[in-house]
Structures are given as C-alpha cells and as structure tokens.
Amino acid sequence: MKHLVHVNHHPHLKKRAMLEFLGFGFLITFIIFQRNILRESFLTVVEVEALYFVVLLSCFWFLLPLTALSYKLISPKPKRIKLKTTMLAHLAGAGPGRIIPGGIGNLSISAIHLKKAGLTIEQGIGVVITNNIFGLLSNILLLIGVLTLRPETYDIITMNVSSEQLIITFSLLVTAIVGLQWLLHARGTRNEVLKTMTQWRMVMRHFLHQPYKVLSVLIIGLLISLIHTFMLDLSAYALGVPLGITDALVALSFGVVVGSVLPTPGGIGGVEAGITAALVVFNYDVATATSIAVLFRVATYWQPLIPGTLSYLYLRERKLL
C-alpha cells in the first residue's frame, strides 16, 4: 500500500519540483539581467550613513506582522490563521513570489498558505484580495487628506500627466476588463472564476458584518501606508535631502500605481520611475530623485528576496505551502 501511495503522488511531486526549479532559475536569471540596477543600488547605499540605512531596512520588518494580522481579521476562520507562518508566507511572496508580475505571485503564495491553514483556495484568494482592497482604500484616504491640506498638489500632478500616459492607463484597464470577461466565458476557467468570486463575496459579507474588524483592518492599512511613506522620507533624509511627508506620500502613491500597471516582476523599474517622476514634478533634480527611489527599493524590494526564498523553502519543507 505504501508503495502504491508513493507511485500515485510521485508524478505530482516531480512536477512541482520542476516548476520550483524553473521558478528559482528564472529568479536568478532576472537578478542577473537587473545587475545594472543592483550596481546602482549598491553605489547609492555606499553613500548613505550606516545608522540611517539600518533604520530604513528595519522598518520593512514591521510590515509583516501587520499584514498577517490583517489576514487573520478578514478570515472567516481566524483561529486557523497562525501569525508566525502567515508572516513567513507573506515574506515568501516577497521572494519567489516576485517572479510573477502584478502581485499575482504574492497573492497565489498567500492564498495557498491560507488553504493549508484550513480555508478553501477560493476563500484564501478572497482574504488576500480583500486585504489588498483595504490597503488601496487606506492609501486613497491618505491621498485625499493630502490633497485637502495641499490642494496645489492636485494641480501639479494634473499639469504633468500627459495624454499618452492617460491613454496607456486606459488601455491597460480595458485589457484587464476584457481578460476578465474572457475568463468568465472560457469553458475551462468560467466555473473556477465564478466559484472564486462567489467565495470572495461570502468572505466580504462575513467580514463587513463585523464593524470592529473592518475598522481594525482599515487602521492597519493606514499604518502600512504611513510606514512606507516614512521609509521613502527616510530614504531622502539618509541622502541629506529634506523631503516633506506629503511629497513622499504622493510620490509613493504614484510609484505604486505605475508599478502596478507595468507587467514587470514586483513592478521593478516602474515603481522607481513613478517615484522619480513624481519627485521631479516637486522640483527635485533627476539624480537626487533617482537615488531616493533606488534606496527606497533596496529596502522594500531587494532586501526581502533572500529571506523570502528561505521562508519559501522552510514552509515547503513543513508542507505549509
């Protein structure tokens, strides 16, 4: 009997091992192709005082427990969500999960871990999507606050957004809608997509009926946005540049938007370009703006790659992924 079980599972394990091998190979290849950015990041880090750099790197690790706590609050089965392993899964998403563009890799790793914790895969996807929606909502609320306090910021942004950028954004949005419609009508995926959407609505309905949890997740989203904003501000301060917190928030939001719409792993190149462009709009010179963006991405993108890979291997060994 043991021999039969081994034979039945062996092909599945072999396929997964091959996919993981290809994934890690792709990640290493990607890093090699991005060696120029890594070199520029290293040169930027060399110019920074060690104390500021350590503080900047440390800020990233405060984000992991906040995200794990958010998942636990949103989950319809919160007792099954362990904060420690959920933190590691989110960290794994920042490692191997980065090889898949648009945040999909991070989403899939987190969803698979939630499934291992006792949720269905559809519920896991629903939890992650709900968390991302509240994160976006938190960032929008902060932006509204900034635009209320500094209405001239809106004029600066609108005057510097070209018609080509609007056309590209609109085209990407239409492409996403068409892709979703295709999935809903494709025979092989329609049932799965509808099942996932149904489970997501159930997760949202259950979550929204608990106002204290909704408020808690919204506050967590605000804290995460503020920590990221502080990290960008600290990146500028570490380079001897006085960057206002409102400028940092707008620049970060613009960078996240650009990085989200560009089909690159982890938004590499797009986030940096968006932050740099926003800072240039706020009258920072290009070289300074680029250095700030690169240093920020060292802390948020490059730092978790190796720890994330180790977390992924640990969770796979424990069969938690």
In words, what does this structure look like?
This protein has 15 helices and no strands. The protein has 321 residues and is mainly alpha-helical. It has one domain (34-317). Helix 4 (63-74) crosses helix 7 (121-149). The longest helix is centred in the first third of the chain and has 32 residues, at 2-33. The chain starts with a helix and ends with a helix.
In short:
The protein is mostly helical and 321 residues long. The protein has one domain (34-317). It is 80% helix and 0% strand.
Tags for this entry?
mainly alpha; 321 residues; single chain; disordered N terminus
Q: How do the SSEs run, as a string of H and E?
A: HHHHHHHHHHHHHHH
Q: SS-based structural class?
A: mainly alpha
Note poorly predicted spans. Answer: 1-13
The major beta sheet can be summarized as:
none
Estimated share of beta-strand residues: under 5%
- Rg (CA only): 21 Å
Number of self-contained structural domains: 1
Bulk shape = globular
Average residue pLDDT: 77
Distance between the termini: 26 Å
What is the helix fraction of residues, given as a range?
over 70%
Count of strand segments: 0
| Count of alpha/pi helices | 15
